[in-house]
């Protein structure tokens, strides 16, 4: 990856130049998935897939209750 992204994301405040530095975001998707799996482990009707929450229910009323609990 070239350093060209820095010039497009740079901005100045109070005479200080800020540039976007994408360090630490490499593991963000996997860490989010792990956190969601731990969070939803006790709820059998809720699952996670990448960045989506999936809810399944037998009826519309149960579905609404599941979404409110989530």
What does this structure look like?
- It is elongated and about 60 Å long.
- The protein starts with a helix and ends with a helix.
- The chain is built from three helices and four strands.
- The protein has helices at residues 4-9, 28-39, 60-69; strands at residues 11-13, 16-18, 46-49, 52-55.
- A two-stranded antiparallel ribbon has the order 1-2. Strands 3-4 form a two-stranded antiparallel sheet.
- The protein has one domain.
- The longest helix has 12 residues, at 28-39.
- By secondary structure, the chain is α+β, with helices and mostly antiparallel strands.
From the N-terminal CA to the C-terminal CA, the straight-line distance is 39 Å
Low-confidence residue ranges: none
> Measured on Cα atoms, how large is the radius of gyration?
20 Å
Q: What is the count of β-strands?
A: 4
User: What is the overall pLDDT average?
Assistant: 80
**Outline:** elongated
Main sheet: strand order: 1-2
